[in-house]
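tmp note - 20844_t:CDS:1
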Amino acid sequence: MDQNFSPEHFETIFRSLPTDKDLHSCLLVNKYWAACAVPILWEAPFGISDSFTPSPKVIQTYLAFIPDRTTTNSNEKLSINKAPLFDYPSFLKEFSYDRFITAAVTNNCSKYTIIELLKILSIRDTKLRRFKIYDHLFSQYFNRNNRVASLVLPHFSECTSIFSSLTYFNCSYQWPVQKAQLFNSIANNCRYIKKIKVSVWHEDEGIALANLIRSQKHLKKFSLINSNIFASFPIQALVDQKWLNSVTFEDMHENRNLCDKEFFNYTICELNNDAINALAQCTNINKVKFKHCEGLNSPLFLPISYTFTNLISLEYSYGTYKINDRTTPIKLLSSLIEESCDTLKKIILDWHSDDHIDITQLIETIARRAINLEYLKIPLYTLEDLALIHQANNQLKKLELYILNRRINLYCILFLFANVPLKITGLLILFYAYINN
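out:
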């Protein structure tokens, strides 16, 4: 019966299985099933998922592919398996560099052996789809391996062919190591990255990253994370990306209570005029997200609100119910909503402040003009704002309100929403004013 299905059909079936456990059971059926399942199981042995910890056995399997003639440090005590049945390195599609280093050091691999492992990826014609350098959530396992990782990273320039099919590149949060050489290597060997997430803190890295962006032909999503003024270089390079439809700015602030990351630089969001003007020319952008960013209330950012006229999603969030937003960019947010009120389907405004902020005009624009809006999350300070939301003339399906004013009577809120329109399938009301007191 196996011969009635091609490997392509089996791949489609196996990828539809709900868990890896189900896929592992396919290995036990017969050799044909195993040959179809193994490539899928070994696509991401070092993981990119935040909850994933690499197994030491993965490195032991990869070590078996290093030629016997290759010399390594004589002090190493390596556990090397016998010759594998499958070409495991060639199946690798998702690669988290810090997790790879941690797994290798756990297996007593020296810098020289790790470099040989990287070369194996190139020799076995590995073609990565997703590449992540540093996962801040994994940092507690990575600190002791920092020096080895710093020494090995430049050697990616010797195996750049593995990046030729890359579609996702994540270099966010500023792990303190020189990355300009890596950026240039990827730029010279890859043309079809669709999503880039980066942090920029040095001029040479900013310039190299700008070259990487210019070399791409199909970039759709760009995220700037925890960066300083040198991020202006890659932002300027976005101007020629005609497929770009989503931009994110995240974690650019000076609030030390708002960050638990190992490598973090405290600064506000700052870009030069050339970068803002270049971003304003990216008129195909329809999704904008700001998360934990300070400095957006500067007039410098206003030009983007006048040219982003077809947004379908706008998100702004800052702080927690215990961390207040002191610099909410109301003017920028109002302008973005005003210019895209006919197209917006999703608006998330999630900040926390003890001070009253007048957003009545903003809410009135949303309620009366955002006719296609389906999802709204917004803070409320007055009953007038609440009444405007209740009378909204749009297609709301999901509504989340959080009350920041204790003077708003809870019974008034319940009375207004006692007869929620049937089209709203999700309604959430949070009383942060009462949580904080």
